[in-house]
Amino acid sequence: MSGTPQKIAVLLVLAAASVYAQSVTTTAGRQRDLDYIANTLPQLDHNFFDQLDRGTYQQAVASLQARVTTATDAEFYVGLEQLVAMSKDMHTNLNLAYGYGLLPLSLYWFEDGLFVTAAAPEYAKTIGMQLIAVNGMPIDQVEQLVGATFPYANNQWFHSQIPVYVTSFFELKGLDIIPAGLAAVPMTFQTLSGEQFTATIGNSSNAKVTGIPGPTPDYLQNPNSYYWYTYVAANRMIYAKYNVCEDDPHGITVAAYSAQILQTLDKQPVDTVVIDFRENGGGNEYLLYPLGAGLFQRLASLRANPNFRIYLVIDQGSFSSGMYTPMAFKSGFLASVEHIPMPDTSGVMYVIGEPTGGKPIGFADVVGFTLPYLGASGYYSTDYIDQNEGVIPDLPSFNPDIYVPTRSTDYFAGFDPVMAAMLARFTGAPPPPSGAAITVNGASFRTAQGLAPGSIAAAFGNFSVTPDQVLVNGAAATMYGASPSQVTFVIPASASPGLATISVRTAAQELAAGQATITSAGPGIFVLDPTNSSQPGAVENQDYAVNSSQKPALRGSVISIYATGHGPLDASGSAAVQVYFGDAPAQVLYSGPVAASPGLWQINAQVPSNIPPGASSLFLLAGSMASNAVTIDVQ
Question: In DSSP terms, which residues pair with 461 in a beta bridge?
Fold first, then answer.
């Protein structure tokens, strides 16, 4: 680590000015910039060749030197990006993607692929669609080319950076993915139903519109704020979003922010403290240490509440100090710096979400540089950072204790699966289904869920003929329907929790078998149209009309939610469940099986009176498990 407790901000957009000093270059100017990258930068960055062979680098420099007079501006300067990226040091980078404008699309790499999350109004039909090709080139080939222009140590950072580079005219032209003179880019998209279409995307002066139909989840709110927090009384939760590890020049300091959070903790009933580091690209990690110290000093008394938890949320955008800070909470480095004993955090504090984009151990503490001719900025590392205290493994990413990925349908339903997991006190997914018959929840179709006794399940495979029987650990299951590739059935109510063998059969002969995990509960809500990215739910209004935008539910009215996967029934025949509209809990009036339809679960809940009109996400919690989310319309 560095001699002083300072991490210079690695806010990746600092590397690119909106307009560079030179818009049309000369051969002499290019040569100055090439000489700087080839010779000066490796002298400044003493770690430049730590992972790079000098001979290989000189060969790449010579290759670009040979093209100084023939390459286009974009080809030449993307070539410089590629030279810098060869160091494989994620804190040494030259990013020119922003300098010549971006396409009016916002993309994000979810668990199921690269999707459009926002677009200029004229391209709104692309929102919620998966990008599968650029100018006819398949997206995996595009990604391979783009991936050579920036350093990364893991797929998480690769996935987090691809969206900007893929929408950069400069990068696409520099990599010859599109011709130099092209003013609009043909892009091919795919719907959830598998249909494909091509749209030609050009510049736009219009502000982008988003694809979330209802209220924005907490983690996506206030993206331009350095940090903010709220106390949610209904959930007894302090939610703190920490976007930048720097003092806000136009607001309160991190020290004041931390003090306010601790004051709230002291004054209000709190079951959950969430510090959310998603998309935090770095800064000074030490600024938040007093908040951690305050939490640790109170932990002994907070443990008196058996439901108390601290969650540190990370994702692919957690980088540099946005990763080092939650690491320091877990490793004990924070306690060491603050000169306090490291408390026992087992069973109380968890890191949750997705692996980080940053690498836990490596070079950091950046200093900026400027290309002498073009005027574009970059940065290089100056120090080797190892703060793992023997606790954090030296892996490509800092991995969460509890892995909770986000799928595109979660995002477009306005649902934060991490928030749902925290509310559920989720401790981790069961082993995924395996074998020649992959069996999943028959409503959510999620592989990260277990199968509850008495619930509807679906097994997928190449069965060659239509099955006529399913056995679960040897017990016959009630079947709903079958085809040569799918069979829908009910898990026998007698199934015991644990690993189960699913045998798909016809005429008493096994066609395929697989394994899946039986769990006490496994909630899944049925979706009326799975090809709709917003996931409209199987929900009836109080007047028995199917909920839709044309027939919204009234606030304060009672709705019926149709799901599967409830847990054990109590003496009255009811199943325990919690219902949430966004992060607002709803009153449950009934929860139990539908006698006429084996495996079907009906929940009657009152629509909260304080939620805004329009679309709202809806999800269930049962047995420390969260369901998938659907949307319903409210008036």
Answer: none
**Which DSSP string corresponds to 208-248?**
PEE---SSPPGGGS-TTSSEEEEEEGGGTEEEEEE--BS--
CB 187 within 8 Å of CB 174: no
Residue 168 DSSP class: B
Q: What is the band of 185 on the pLDDT scale with cuts at 50, 70, 90?
A: very high
pLDDT for the residue 181:
87
CB atoms within 10 A of CB 21: 13
Tokens standing for residue 49:
């060749």
Secondary structure letter of residue 124 according to DSSP: G
In angstroms, rounded to a whole number, what is the distance separating the alpha carbons of residues 523 and 420?
A: 12
Distance CA 340, CA 141 (A): 51
Please state, in angstroms and rounded to a whole number, the distance separating the CA atoms of residues 412 and 407.
9
- Helices within 41-89 (DSSP H only): 41-44, 54-65, 73-85
pLDDT at 21: 53
Q: How far apart are CA 481 and CA 487, in angstroms?
A: 6
* Alpha-carbon gap, residue 514 to 502, rounded angstroms: 5
Q: In 3-state terms, what secondary structure has residue 162? A: helix
Angle at 517 between CA 422 and CA 460, to 5 degrees: 110
SS3 155: helix
In this structure, which long-range contacts are made by residues 234-237, counting pairs with CB atoms below 8 Å and at least 24 apart in sequence? 234/584, 234/585, 235/271, 235/272, 235/423, 235/583, 235/585, 236/268, 236/269, 236/270, 236/271, 236/272, 237/270, 237/271, 237/272, 237/273, 237/274
- Beta-strand ranges (E) seen in 300-414 are 309-314, 349-353, 362-370, 377-385, 402-403
Distance from C-alpha of 448 to C-alpha of 56, rounded to nearest angstrom: 43
pLDDT digits (tens, 9 = 90+) for 227-260: 999 999 999 999 999 999 999 999 999 999 999 9
Smallest CA-to-CA distance from 618 within 604, 628, 630 is with 630
* Cβ–Cβ < 8 Å for 516, 500: yes
Separation of alpha carbons 113 and 478, rounded Å: 35
Residue 390's pLDDT band (cuts 50, 70, 90): confident
pLDDT for position 27: 95
